[in-house]
Amino acid sequence: MKEVVITGASRGIGFETVRLFLAQGHRVFCLTRNIDALQNIRQENLLVCATDLTSVESMNAAAAFVRAHTQRIDVLIHNAGSLVNQPYETIRYADLERVYKVNVFAPYYLTQQLLPLMGIHSRTHVIHISSMGGFQGSAKFPGLTAYSSSKAAVAGLTECLAEELKDSNVSVNCLAIGAVQTEMLAEAFPGYVAPLTPMQMAEYIFEFALKGHQYYNGKILPVSSSTP
Fold it and tell me: Which numeric CATH code is attached to 3-222?
């Protein structure tokens, strides 16, 4: 049984990823702002902590919650994301700040706070869920300067942490995923139909979380059915 921590697990890809881990008998810690959707999952291996990833105090409480219930972390998936579709000329600082807090600062800080539980008995796999929008050389879209640039920062963070933690029995990788038909995508792009479902992407993330660190460390891997 693996000890798994997932952020942003109340809907979409995160929610389906939680279900997959639970179905295979693993224990899952969900750090998510909205816990209502998880209340219907009756599983003793599911531990939920209401967490605001824009708040240091809330993240400290979440890290304390995890430390109080386990002595190790085998998989840490930074899945939570914030997206604003707004022209560069009119985007507010508050929106920019929120996007970076959720997408960049939270993964940076939570990994740091949970590090004492990592790599103790076996190698821990830290996964950043990024976006093709932040993948160097990919197609870019107007209105997504905050989101895509924050996801590019996550890619850089992945490479830096892999080097920082290479002697700590911890692997850090980044999945730059393409369009998936999630609630967040529908809210940002009404009417657009993505080629993949949340469950399809969750299945890939699930397998990668358990096996990917045997082959990769410090890598930014595109996961998209479209080009470029």
Answer: 3.40.50.720
